[in-house]
Amino acid sequence: MTEQSIHLTINGVERAAKCEDRTTLLDFVRHDLGLTGTHAGCEHGVCGACTVEVNGQIVRSCLMFACQASGANIKTVEGIARAGELTDLQVAFKKHHALQCGFCTPGFLMAADDLLRKNTSPSELEVREGLSGNLCRCTGYVGIVEAVLEVAVQRRNKIGDARA
Amino acid sequence: MHRPNSIREILDILELHGEDARILAGGQTLVPMMAMRVASPAHLIDLALAHELHQFDVTKGALRVGAGVTQSTLEGWDQLALKQPLLEMMFPWVAHSPIRNRGTVCGSIAHADPSAEMVLALMTLGGSVTLASKKRERTVNAADFFLGALQTSREPNELIVSAEFPMQSAETGFGFAEYGYRHGDFAVVAVAVVRNGKSWTIGFGGVDDTVKVFRIEASSIGEVDEHINKLASTIEVREDPTATSGLRRHLMRTLGARAVNQAFEFKGNYQS
To answer: Cβ(B189)–Cβ(B93) under 8 Å?
Structure first.
């Protein structure tokens, strides 16, 4: 078993570490960096709970080896909000009961954030399609979709206000 | 894990360890297989740092896609609808965006799942695969590359360098229809249609161990549908726990009619 030295930026902080070749980015983030917000669900790419952003694109951290992320800029769910504050998406998730057990939530937040960056006024169908790679076994998705649609409107209004 | 910087280095490693090595392109199939211990290669060869493999271009009448090009890179190409509309129609059906962000076009072709959209596109467009080993480079027609479900004519010491999707003539129409149980899941049946005047090429994915392609001459949509109807009744169709052969035959007809209609009415700004 060989080890590699890796160097990456995670949530704006530069980190260097050693890891085994076989370590997934998911395990590396959770066990080596101690960022346990990213959840290990199915561990074979089906559930989306482990979604993180690598160089601006959301990916399954369970389907990528940590050493492949060397040099990359990574954002996990811990990186979306300032300490002690909730983002607009998190507030909306709370308001719309878009989580019950919360296991899938980090993945949904990362996917929803990505979706809203690419499409500022998604239809309900587009939200459902955009989040179709994430599984939630509690909510039935209704609250999640409502939360994302509401944030889309809020963000558009904010831009409108700024321009007014 | 090997992380070579060039094709030459990759081929050296393959020559040495080919039998025990697996190419790691996007890893969206290989890594789940490793997680489930279906695959446990002694050597992984990561293509990420071999920049020459991360390019695509239109050359010699074909869209040539390098082994490292992700599905989302090609999906995001602003010329895709003009140059290769069939792929543009298919991408939303290929898994989910986080998977397409890492999954590669050539990786899907290397995996050779008969339900995969990329395999269906390559077969229906009459494309080819370019393979290289330390000693030689060869280009294989898609029909000769796919030998069966998850089986190809790639030798253990060979790297898939690129896949070539041929451009069609300017008046060509394209159609695509698919049915799967869940959004982003593999197709139970998928149909691709390429129409050039009275010549129709119809590819069926998911019906057998390889994609089945038929070329027919027909002067009306009704005539094409009749052909598909006959094919659906007569060709060998797989039966497995996910779908009976009867369902697959039914889907060949209904999805076939839909894709044929789409190809007939196709009004893209296709540029060959």
So the answer is: no
CATH superfamily of A3-79: Beta-grasp domain (3.10.20.30)
Q: Closest Cα to residue A12, out of A30, A28, A35, A41?
A: A35
pLDDT higher than 80, residue B270 = no
Nearest to A44 among B1, B35, B97 (CB): B35
* pTM of the model as a whole: 0.95
The domain limits of chain A are 3-79, 88-163
ipTM above 0.95? no
Q: What is the structure's pLDDT at A3?
A: 87
Q: Is beta strand B56-59 parallel, antiparallel or unpaired with respect to B21-24?
A: unpaired
Domains of chain B: 7-166 (3.30.465.10), 173-264 (3.30.390.50)
Determine contact: A68 vs chain B, CB below 8 A. Answer: yes
Whether A164 has a pLDDT exceeding 70, the answer reads: no
* CATH architecture, domain A88-163: Orthogonal Bundle (1.10)
Three-state SS at A137: coil
Q: Looking at the complex, does the CB of residue B76 fall below 8 Å from at least one CB of chain A? A: no
Helix, strand, coil abundance in chain A, percent, nearest 5: 40, 20, 40
